[in-house]
Amino acid sequence: MFIHEYDNWTDFRWDYGSIAVLLDDVAREQGRLYGRLNYLGFDDRLRAMSENMVQDVVHSSEIEGIRLNSDEVRSSVARHLGIEAVKYIAPSHYIDSLVAVMLDAIEHCNDKLTHDKLCAWQSAFFPTGHSEGIQIEVGKYRTHDEHIVSGSFGRERVHYIAPSPGRVPGEMQRFIDWYNSDKNTSPILCSAIAHFWFVSIHPFEDGNGRLARILGDILLARGDKSRFRFYNISSEINRDKKHYYDILESTQRGDGDITGWLLWYLQTLFAALHRADVMVNTILNKSVFWANAAGIPLTRRQTETLNIFLDGYEAKLTSKKWAELNKCSKDTAIRDIQDLLQKGVLQEDVPGAKRPSYSINYAAGAANNVFATRFHNVRIEGDFLIAEYEGRQVRERIIKLDAERYAKGELPLETLLQKYCSYYSL
């Protein structure tokens, strides 16, 4: 039996003891993230939200098997949010529609959910009325049976059979009534329940997964009391789609106990929050650099290239890479780099190396740099930089390339400390 074949199937139940610790961890990570965001100005917050939305739109589409051009998505998001200094690439009507739905949902996160709104969002996902070249029903609930099937012809496997189309209007009314009601349950758990409940009804012919993730995000936004969204679950789901579909199927074949689903959702949300924390740290460290380097004269090319690396570009900074990024000669790249070395903006990773590489000096221009002396017992363990700072432990995730280069002796600890922990000086 599938879950919807049971009487009162939406009376979901779970073992709170099994999820309590993880739920507290997620709530604590949310608070930690928003605490750090207090250090960001409005423009930086907007840029952080913009990048989060880009990742959300791109990964949410990939879950459905659709690859989007990230630059087109970034251009569309920047235009909708009024962000300048983003290279404009005309997005397709499809991408613009996706971005518009995401923004509408979050901008009006406190509005009541309605049938018309859901149908309008689903219609916007499919402006041509087709999905993967096949005509589908848009802007209305499905009028035919829906089987979730995988496998090649003759070897099909049925994962789930959704409620019959005649049940959909009534099931959706119950869902919307619950969604709009005052709930005593944690907004985090409500987000997980809404996601599962909606995809289990499967009210539309296509677009159900995207809508479920949006509906979950809205409830998280209500709980955060913020229309700025800095984390998304789509990116984490896309990194492990098989587990997502497996837990969804096992819960939909269950009898209403959704403990396993909640555990998976909380773990995935925790990972999403941690990834967002890394993004916010990158923005904070970038702000520290530009605050220190404000009085240093730089060319436009130098500024733009430094920003590429300050935004987390995963590559060694070399004259070859500089020339490649700027489509200039290697001699021009060397002159740019030498100028930055003389001004203290860059520093050699290994002085005198045959093939030199460089790192950004986050303290460039700072009158007094006592930042590093406040950290003790600095070390790298796996993909984390560990240290003690004013009586508390620092634990910052570092990119794989930096961990590998440190292990090879190509990056000193002091450089990593600057790159990942400069914002502690705020």
Q: Could you explain how this protein is built, in words?
A:
With 426 residues, this protein is mainly alpha-helical. It contains 16 helices and nine strands. It has a three-stranded antiparallel sheet with strand order 7-8-9, covered by helices on one side. A two-stranded antiparallel ribbon has the order 1-2. Strands 3-4 form a two-stranded antiparallel sheet. Strand 7 and strand 8 (384-389) form a beta hairpin. The longest helix has 34 residues, at 259-292. The model has no long low-confidence stretch (mean pLDDT 91).
Task: Give the arrangement of secondary structure elements.
Layout: H1 16-37, H2 42-63, H3 70-81, H4 93-107, H5 115-125, E1 130-131, E2 134-135, E3 147-150, E4 157-161, H6 168-180, H7 187-201, H8 208-224, H9 234-239, H10 241-252, H11 259-292, H12 300-310, H13 319-326, H14 330-342, E5 346-348, E6 358-360, E7 375-381, E8 384-389, E9 392-397, H15 400-407, H16 413-421
Antiparallel strand pairs: 1-2, 3-4, 5-6, 7-8, 8-9
Helix pairs in contact: 1-11, 2-3, 3-4, 6-7, 7-8, 7-11, 13-14
